[in-house]
Design a protein that fits this description.
166 residues, mainly alpha, 4 helices, elongated
Length: 166
C-alpha cells in the first residue's frame, strides 16, 4: 500500500512544480495571482512529505544517525532497527496520530478555511498529518516483522543501505 501511495507522493512533486511555474508565469505575465495557488503548493508539499515518508522507510532510504550503524554486523543492525522501531518510531507515530486526529476533526467540523483572501479549506492538509503518521506506523510494523523474520531465517531479506559520504 505504501508503495502505491509513494507513487502518488512522487507525482505530487511534478504537480507542485507545474502549479508553481504556472502561478509565477500568471503573476509576471498577466499580473494575476491567487493565494489559493500558493496554498495548494504547500498542501502538496505536506502530502509529499507525509505520504512519501512511509515509502522511504520501506525502501530503507530514510535518514538515520550513523554513529555506530555502519561499523556493526548486519545482525546487529537488524536488532538496532527492531529496538528503535519499538522504542521510538511506533510510539511517536501513535502519539502524533492521537494528537493530530482531533485537530483535523475540529477543522472539518467547522469548515475551517484559510484567513487569506482566496485561500483554501484547511481540513485536507490537516488530514495529511494523522494519515501520514498512521501509514508510517503501519510501515514500521511491517519493517519490524521483516527484521524479526530475517533474524529467525524465515526470509532472506536485504536491508542494506547506502552509507553516507563522509
Amino acid at each position: 500500500m505504501n508503495e502505491q501511495i509513494g507513487i502518488v507522493a512522487n507525482w505530487l512533486v511534478l504537480w507542485a512544480a507545474l502549479i508553481s511555474a504556472g502561478n509565477a508565469a500568471s503573476r509576471y505575465l498577466f499580473s494575476e495571482s491567487s493565494n489559493g495557488w500558493l496554498e495548494i503548493q504547500w498542501y502538496m508539499f505536506a502530502a509529499m512529505v507525509l505520504l512519501g515518508a512511509p515509502y522511504t522507510l520501506k525502501m530503507n532510504e530514510h535518514v538515520r544517525v550513523d554513529l555506530f550503524y555502519s561499523m556493526v554486523s548486519e545482525r546487529t543492525r537488524i536488532w538496532i532497527d527492531i529496538i528503535c522501531g519499538f522504542l521510538f518510531l511506533l510510539p511517536i507515530c501513535v502519539i502524533l496520530v492521537y494528537f493530530t486526529w482531533p485537530w483535523f476533526v475540529d477543522s472539518w467540523r467547522i469548515g475551517e478555511t484559510s484567513s487569506n483572501a482566496g485561500g483554501l479549506i484547511r481540513w485536507p492538509v490537516k488530514l495529511m498529518l494523522p494519515v501520514g503518521f498512521a501509514l508510517m506506523a503501519l510501515q514500521g510494523v511491517s519493517e519490524i516483522i521483516k527484521r524479526i523474520a530475517a533474524l529467525e531465517h524465515v526470509i532472506e531479506a536485504d536491508f542494506t543501505y547506502e552509507k553516507p559520504v563522509q
